[in-house]
């Protein structure tokens, strides 16, 4: 699996910007693109997108793809990894990293909420089969720390197996982009 480990607070802050997080996602799902192509998808000017791409590149999330350009004015970008991981617990010994990590997690949580809201907004256009196959749910469990850790590992394994299935699909074969969000954490409420 192509995973980039994120340990630097400055890099976390760079990715915590909603537009940059979205651009990285678009480069991961859509492959290399130019600032103009990305700007069309996020409704931002190419100059603004170029700025955000430079920040992402400075933090090591994306890199130029000059071999794809047809002229010197056209700057292509690609993601350097398919996934990024970090662990909030690593910030307990570093207050700056804790602040940066929680800011990044807030941005990611909002992106997940926005993605699900977009799904709900488009339900009528998606068709009965796709809507019926979708799922959303929760469970309130009482677990020990070790059990929570095991649950997380098991859920990650399930996603890993389905990611392998996903890799075998290509546009036009009946597959569509599917978002799978898994969260398990200790509730802040009693």
UniProtKB/TrEMBL annotation:
Annotated Pfam families: HTH_20
Domain HTH arsR-type span(s) in chain numbering: 10-104
Name of the protein in question: Helix-turn-helix domain-containing protein
